[in-house]
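G.,

No rush on this.
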Amino acid sequence: MLTRIVTVAALAMGGVLLSKQMKKNRGSDTSSSVEESIEVNVPVSTAYNQWTQFEEYPRFMDSVKEIKQIDDRHLHWRADVAGKEKEWDVEITEQIPDKRIAWRSTSGVANGGVVTFHKISDSTTRVMLQMDYEPENMLEQVGDAFGAVRMEARGNLQRFKEMLESRGRETGAWRGEVTQH
């Protein structure tokens, strides 16, 4: 039993040290980033329209329990992060129909990013996700070092693709524009 505890502690510490070294190599001691993309066999407007349906995210984002849209620019998120329920608020900083949606957290879990939509053909769209985030504790840092957020992002995009392609249409749309201040 003691050997198992020592082994787990050593692996965890090794993960933290690896994470810190990786961040140091990237020039950051606290934040991490992930970039993933997927091709979805729907027109760009369909992919974009579905992504604007923020309250639908729990249907394809495994760890997201609930999103409440407060107004055109503000959302409240509730999700499991490394096995712990967390909540945070998000501001949509830019939204250009069929092109991009950018955000940043304003409270709670520190994160921000952009999703862009690229027309490959009339019936195929590349959805690209770029996100920066700050692991808050040792468990999140270890998960970060082993690519947990990257794997979750990849899985979320795959489920988005499957959901949208199986349905063939979006569940709704918001075509308004949000510009940066």
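When you get to it, here's the other one too:
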Amino acid sequence: MSANLREELRRTADQAQTYDVYAGSVAKARRGRRRSVAAWVLLVAALALAVPFVSRSRPAIPPAGSATSTLPDRLGLPAFGSRGVAGLGAASVVYSGYGGRFGPFFDDADTFALVGAATEDYRTLHTGLIEDGVLLSPDGTVVAIPEQLVDLRTGDQRPLPGVPVAWSPDGRRIVVQGTRLRIVDVTTDATIDLGPADEWTSAAWSPDGRRLAYEQDHRIIVADESGRALGSFVPPGGSVLAGKGAWAPDGRALALLPSETRSWALRWFDPADGREVSGPDLPAIDGEIFGGSLLGWRPDGSALAFVAANQPRLLALTPGTAEPVSAMALPSEVYYLDIADRAIESGQVRAGDPPFFIGPLMWPRLIVGAAGVLVLWWLIRRARERARLRRVVATPWETTHGPLV
């Protein structure tokens, strides 16, 4: 090697940047430890946040009648991961509809949502694949579903011999439909048989709870509370009872609706003999209508009606007015709705506050899922680091750098 070449190599070596192997290794190890500590801190924090949500302690039971039942001015969709009904106390509204918020299938719902009687507390109840037959008791503390009564204070369930059709105003009795139509006393389980049930049956109790109108064999039958028939008539043109609020507030007339048309124009009939009579002059409902129900009467004399359509509506019908007015803004997904009698009778409305789309029971799942991903990432990173170290130790120097001499 010439002197010039040695001098050039020495000059190049002097100008080359040096790397402190020890300091670099220490810095890299510290960075790894910091990442590991941060990962474990995040995991512990996630689990700590999840603990309050996944607590399985029994919810406190609200005192009965602790607040006046009111209606929200707008309804929202239930959140994914909403709490169950235990501890709700009482509800003002129960409803269901299309889409993922109400079940795993777009057109078939297996979940009904409930809104608190006095607060914007949204809960959900899994009922199986049903479209209707879910009714709130007059005070909103019990919800009747096919084959069951569910206490909204405790979440306890009791058997019910059929599909609920109509609650009595005092909440002690309920009409149920199976192969036969029955009145069931919910405190004693005593039943009164009303005869064979039609495939589709509706019923309505008079405001004082002493008379019951129901459909049977294409007739409207009016009975007393013991089930004794007081009169019956054939409704004109296949008309049907307008809903659980079909009785006029004074109990002197029954409201019927045409069953084969999409118009909403009530006609009033004498419950004793079926003569058409005058009743509250409620405005007709225009627009596209798939179905609906007269739900009850407010203190100002107006009636609340739910109308199922592409854009469902809850309307207030005031006697003597030309048009109904909106009583509650509804999501377009809703196709079924019932309201507790006490919420209607209070006449009070509160500001609605629909929930965020992620509910309290969904957060733990998201947190635990994120923590799981974090742990998996850390394990993969550790495994890759160990594999790299094994390769470095196992590979001879000569393989990558050539002979030492």
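The CA atoms of residues 99 and 246 lie 31 Å apart. The helical segments are 3-15, 21-54, 341-346, 362-394, 397-401.

Enjoy the weekend,
O.
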